[in-house]
Structures are given as C-alpha cells and as structure tokens.
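Q: Here's a chain of 245 amino acids. Please give me its 3D structure as tokens.
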Amino acid sequence: MKKLSLQFCFLLLLSIFTFSSCLKDNDDGPWNNMPSAGLMYFVNGFTEAESGLLYRLDGNIVGNPLSSDPMVLEYKTFSGALLLNPGSRKLTITNYATDQDILIDTTLTIKVDNGYTSFVYGTNEEPKFAMTQDSAIENIGSNESGIRFLNLATDVEGVNLYIEGEDEPLYSNRPIETGSSAVAYQTFKTQQSGKYTFTVTDAAGNELVTREDRELRRGYYYTIMLMGKPDNSETPLYIGVVEHY
C-alpha cells in the first residue's frame, strides 16, 4: 500500500460517530473523480467541552454534511471526513455554548490529495491543538495492521503503551503531546493483526487504564490515544481508538 494520497473513501462516512473511521488508498472508486482538495477529520479529546465543540473555517461554521446543522463534536467523538480547499485555512474552535469562548485559533496548510487528522485536548486554561498527516505503510504485510499512539491526557506525563503478549512497551515515556511531538509520532508502525488488550502505565510502571478485546484487523490503521484526567470521575482516563482502513 503506497502513501495515502487519495483517501476519498472518507466521503462514505460523513456522519458523526464515535472512534471508527476510514483511511484507505485505493486507485479504484468514485472518490478518484472528486475535486482537488485535502481531507480532514476532527477529533475532540477536550474533556471540558460540556456542550461540545464548534468549528469554523475561514469564519464559516463547519456544517454536518448530512444536514444543515452545525457540526458539533462531543468529547470522545470525531467527525466524518471533510473536503477542504487547499492552501492556507484559518481554523477557529469554540465551545458550543452561548459565550462561545475561542479555544483554538490557528492556520492550517492543506495540500491537494493529502489526508489529515486534528486533535483538540487540554483544559479551558490551556487548550491544546495538534494535527497529523496520515500516510499508509509501504508494503504492509497481509496479516499486519498499522498503529500509532498519542498522549492527549491531562496531567499525565511519561506514559507507556503496552500491548498484550509483549513484555516491552510499544511506546515509552510519552509526554503530553505538543503540535511538534504529534507530528514526530504521526507515522504508523506495523503490528501483527489480532485481538489485544492495551494497557497504559505511568512513568513508575503503575497501571493507569486498560482497554480489552480490541481487534486490529488486517490492513487497517489505528490511532490509539490516552485521553481524560487522572482521578476524575466525570472524565477518567480512557484509551480511545480511531480505526482507519
């Protein structure tokens, strides 16, 4: 599988749903006739988004493609893929509330036929934003999956991600992401396909959270994310998984 330059199967999944999506390079299909654009989908890992997040591009509210309503993402959800015009795009993200305080105000550079994922996390006092460019693994094996790991949690530094059956962590000493660290870890790595339990530990090796019976399907790609806050009953630590195929 070559670099994901044409990921237009995202257009088949335009509705909002919880951590399951599409990332595929396929030379056959109607998406090859789409206009020249980039693709973006938006992940909400912002624990304090009580009313959800509202997105604006170049001042215009991003709408749900299946309705005329604004696209409002609740915590632990993400959007279907959106076509974005290439070039410099101004992105503003606010709480979906009457005050609509601005959390993120940034400029994106979108390239034609490239796919991206953006993440909002942190707190009202210190909101954070990161964006990855999503590319497939060349010559991925017939019984392999692709995975990557991001630490989007609050106040949890130096975490390790373990996968069932392995003594050593797949990722170790991962700090809370910055924009640059997310880019540094945006590359997927291969993992034998199968059903696994994921465990995240802290810097001292103490178990923080697990997620059991998560299947990694052949040829699919997975973004695994630590989210939430430690010792918080409303938004506890959680291992979120975005499935790309």
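Q: Can you summarize the key feature?
A: The longest strand covers residues 207-216.
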